[in-house]
Records
---
Amino acid sequence: MVDNTQVTKTISLEDYGIKNARVHYQLSPEELQKKTIALGQGVESSFGALAVNTGEFTGRSPKDRFIVKDEITEDKVWWGDINIPFDPEKFDSLYNKVTNYLGDKEIFARDAYACADDNYRLNIRVINEYPWSNQFAFNMFLRVNDSELESFKEDWLVVNAPGFKADPSVDGTRQENFAILNFKKKIALIGGTGYTGEIKKGIFSALNFVLPVYNNTLPMHCSANVGEDGDTAIFFGLSGTGKTTLSADPERKLIGDDEHGWTKENTIFNFEGGCYAKVINLSEENEPDIYHAIKPGAILENVILNDNGDVDFSDTSITQNTRVSYPIYHIDNIQEPSIGENPKNIFFLTADAFGVLPPISKLTPGQAAYHFISGYTAKVAGTEAGVNEPVPSFSACFGAPFMPLHPTKYAEMLSRKMKDAGVNVWLVNTGWTGGPYGVGNRMKLKYTREMISSALEGKLDGVEFENHQIFGLSMPKTCEGVPAEVLNPKNTWADKEAYDKKAKELSTFFKQNFSKFEEYANEEIMKGAPVD
């Protein structure tokens, strides 16, 4: 009997232009963690999980994300500040530089795939300069069975070289780091940044083009879970809105926490094989599923450890974007395979730092399309003395940095699917209540969970609703487990006039942001705008 674990420990990468490299192929997480520690690139935390520092970049660099402009992309991609064109010849030259750089080095290769539904499967070969980057790929992509490796052929190639620095004056980049998608050659080329999120978001961006253009499937920046009755719930939301936290529900099986497709067969499938969660202020009490997933095999990024290896989750001295990646099987309550049917409820999550939007409201189809295209949340301006004003943040389709097509293409697909499936759509504010950031308080997670549970269980179907006077949103007057005064945000403000002023201010931001989409939006969508 042949021992495949030995046969598949190394492969040649010369066909990709990488010469004389010592290639570690398909190493286990345990082997990669040991290698990372031996190289001095990480340490073991008291959880048993690996802890690494991603270096200069602790988040994505949107201005350094490019798409090669060629006959495939020229007329389809929505070019601009988000999708920045890159010259094909410059790409070829830069690719050769990166592969030459990786030559003669000890590097790490992995075969994996994206999309849990076999009808949409995308095979991926990942080549990493660092072992912990390769371990991230193990965690985040779907894992290939050993029996499949011999005949494996990738659909897309990811080449990841954090130590390589581009020369902007020669290479066509903005600065030394870059993340470039080439749809003709099916390559994601990443260099100059150790932030692992660029790896997963590169493939996500590729699928956001491939699935709607070629497969009539809507790609979504969302989490998803499924109930005992087989009903699927979808959670859209930008970073920090609770997308990962709220989809990890002990009463429901997790499909995935970040990236999904909605097929023409009306099924929902996870793109990924793992989760990439924020850990700022993480606690076992508030987020037990994520907390308990931090164990051997997980990777903590940019956290602060004491001499005993204990993590201080409140310490943001490196970044507020502290993260953990782990394979989805670190969560006990998961859907296997990561596919759901019968989508019944969609939640748009926003962390409104203005303290204006209701904690939960039911949307009409027009409002749903309007808020999907808007993709609103708010960022707090900071904690310096006297700086307490929130800053609105709009990201079309709750994921504009990863959407190669025009946002209305995705919105039209979503609107059609929502109507065909008869889903309920809810806007949920996980942000501030009782006043804006600096005055009010963050909405209690316990209340948000109660409201979402009530929506999922149909308990809000028979209650009385009232309309928000400025946004026109339909707000329930009662919800089990939630104080009635919390449900109408104006009731939580001591100064009602100040509330009206702030609500009108936010509605103006909405309208200003949406002005760039108006020529593409139909009458139904425009009726979803704030009424005042």
---
Amino acid sequence: MSGAEAEVAVLIVGGGPVGLTARALLARWGVSTLLVEKHAELSPFPRSRLVNVRSMEIFRQLGLADRVTAAAFAPEYGRVRFRDTLCDEDFATAAMVGIDAPVPESPVIGVLTSQDRLEPTLLAAADGDAPLRFGVELIDLAERPDGVVAVLLDRRSGEETRVRARYVIGADGANSTVRERLAIATTGPGAMGDFTTVVFDADLGRWSARQPAGVYFTAHGSFGPVHPEGGWLWFGPTPGDGADTDWSGLVTRALGAGSGSGAGAGVRADVRRVQHWVMNAFVAERLRHGRILLAGDAAHAIPPIGGLGMNTGIADVHNLCWKLAGVLRGWAGPGLLDTYATEREPVAHRTLRQAVANAQLMVQVLERRRDQLRSGAPAQGRSELPWSERYFAQLGLVLGTAYRSAAVLDGDGTRPAPSERGTDTDTGTEADTDYVPTPEPGHRLPHLWLADGRSTLDACGEWFTLLTPDPAHWERQAAAPWPVRIETLPAEHADRCGLGPHGALLIRPDGHIGARWRDPSPRGSTLRHTVTAITGSTPS
């Protein structure tokens, strides 16, 4: 083991989309990081494939949305289709809301893309001041009063090094070493089965070009296009003899093309890659252990049906990184980090419930189809979907999350919301079907267009934003040492947000409303007291 200890503000363990997003966010705050990833390179595999509206809003904040979109599929691929085999016609279909077309509640549209296209964009988002070491594995960590000492193993050279970090983000996946070292248990269904993804080439245009989709669910596994320029994937339960499986033959038969006759005659899958994986479903019992915080799959493993897992992890670090930056830069107290778990744990549990429900809904569609065919119904007959046209009923979950913690003030910015209210997200019905924009504290700031053509969401960044129809009133209130910007809110939007002529919304750096004043009191320290309460800092 090398003698000298390297020092860094934040050690990020895990180089997937969540860890890379955390690195990019912290770089914007000027926080020094080191990211270590045990694999030798970025993922060459097209795993997580849906970037939802909320994640695209975060990437827009990072200046990455256009680049992510440029490498993604066209919006018409934002749809799921159900077929008996890929070669058959649809018997049911549904849109991915916010992916297939813009929604008025956001300035962006989500995209269907592959993780192997997303990760290089995220990697390039942070400069050379944010080093990344591939092929380096965390093997031990110990918390000290002033930081965390991590032991890292270079898997190529065998050399061990020590790094002292003020804080550690564990974003190292469902089989997290960080979580294991901390002996943090998990709750939930756990492992839901062994699955395999096969990437292959085949000429399938005659069954997909006219009716594009991100996913085609069939009774013989699911199919999806990999990249706009070509390639396909199949995923399904791993056969009992997975090690000896003829994957080309299995996928070819699943296509409905293996019989030598019929619609799929002559088509064969040319296999490129095979990956085995476990479908996990759990939430960690704790997201924080002192100076060590879990995010992404390390904190919550979400089944992939509905595309919620990666996006939930991206929202995790968007919530966390501004809090870490505030503590490290001295304008927030350490207690602000307590609100990370208070705010994100309920989201993780609710998302897990929705993802499990999504999987059950998918099974229901296939079971209804089998019943339909057994009853002698025409093969080309349609099946009624057991959910609304809002793709797997989740738009409210994606945009409607509300936080209840000490970092949100209720009423007119006067009373901290009690932390015990953070037992669930305040998003309406259990199905999270609908999203209704609201200016209530704790909710994501509604998207409204400002006079200069920007969205209200574009006013958020590495600062607190005060949106008000009367900037002059608030400019008299010094907010130093906190980063605060004042933006003019058009009068028509002020009415929609329930603000009087001198009212204001205080927006946290993660785009959630921290406080609202319909009509502020004449006290000149209103803003200072509020930001002090939200950040848990000691006013100077």
---
Amino acid sequence: MRVRTSVVARVATASVAALAVAGLAACGSGSSSSDDAGPPVSGGTLRYGLSDAPTCSDPAQSGTNQTIYVTRQIVDSLTDQVPGSGELKPWLAQSWDVSPDAKVFTFHLKPNVTFSDGTKLTADSVKKNFDAIVNTLGGAKAPLAATYLSGYTGTTVVDPLTARIAFSAPNAQFLQSTSTPQLGLQSDATTAQSAEARCQGTNVGSGPFVYSGWQQGRSAALRKRTGYAWGSAAFKHQGEAYLDAIDFTVVPESGVRTGSLGSGQLDVISDALPNDKQQITAAGGSVLTAVNPGVPFGLQPNVSRSALADEQVRRALLPAINRQELVDTVLDKDFHPATGVLAANTPGFHAETSALAFDAGKAKQILDAAGWAAGPDGIRAKNGQRLSFSVLYSPVFAGNQAILELLQQQLKNVGVEMKLDVVPAAEATVRQNSGDYDAIYYNVTRADGDILRTQFGLNARNLNRRGPIPALDTALAEQQTTTDITARNADLATAQTQIVDHGLFIPTIELSQAIGAAGNAHQVAFDASARLQFHDTWLSGR
């Protein structure tokens, strides 16, 4: 079954590509384009203020938004996903075939694509990239990329421009995953390196920008790739990027980022919080927002330890949280309370309205019935065990601490003590991999409901450290086996209900990207996963 640009929505009996489309129409997007800005001009260096340090220069190992803003620019993917519609478009692959059982995916590559070291991109490049993710990086270093390739049995080089990727079982999510930066393609020089070496800023991709500098924890510098001529069909223009270069600097303090934008020291900044907006707009700038699809921010408990081992405690946390208050107090109208274990713009989203409705009385009743009685200080206890747990998190979003501090108060009102354990992102990853946490607070972005399998699957990341739950395990497995959207969404709905029923995730808010852009920065735009793509960005007045 051949998929070309004009027929992307017609794959098999019910398009595999359409799986990425369903539910994405509501995805927020923004761009700093201006009707009176005139035609785009080339040149200039965009100065970007990150709110947190990138964790690794390797797109395959990228997890945080601040990291992906950098790494996305150096790699192209086999496909691209259109913001808003979610339609899959050609990028490095000019067409593709998908077997009826969704086990085999054949990509027909564009000719004459080269990596920035001058080597050609071929079907063997695809094979080496995917082999390295599975065999060299693995799930510990590349958790998202590894789960996208779950069941990977290998890539066959049919000819220099045809790569056939096979899986041991149906893998309906894989086509959409080929649009992600985690599966972006890099040269042989990079894929031959160790996981650690791939984090040092020497990565060689085929993207519109290349690394010109990397200081771990401090900054990253990119320059334009001369001769770039194979951009995504979703880009607004073809050919080289307009910008000559991009300088990323880590500026953790929100007020400093905003002040630097207003004074002209920065052109674009991350995490423009509500109290920054007036200052940004007063200086002639704008704030661009987009809701991240995927798993919203929330608590994922480790069910093997602490009071969270009690399912009734986990179930009581769901109605104990006033999600609207979190948004109204800490954030603003550009953010939304979570209404399920997926963001509402994610394909396959199923609302869990009743279970997540704020009802402190209901939370107390559940805890009373489970034998957790209030102690002298108001915190409950049972059989000598205090109803207390710690939550591991890193400041990857500037609003995290304020949200969690308010959440502490809300949970204390029903007799639950939540302690905050803030660590750098790299340490959080290590502890997640080892299971050293009572609960973790995080979100993860992906425009496909299969992200549930990635995070909650028994044989995937399984951040809950749980044992078998037949109804959940079956639903997560079955959604992989069909290209029929209705059937797949039914399986995803079952999975979401099971996750809530067992208290495996306690959602709080949907993450929105809020990007501050100065008046001279144009076409600062989001991709389908609410990440920034700078190929079309340009500067005026430089």
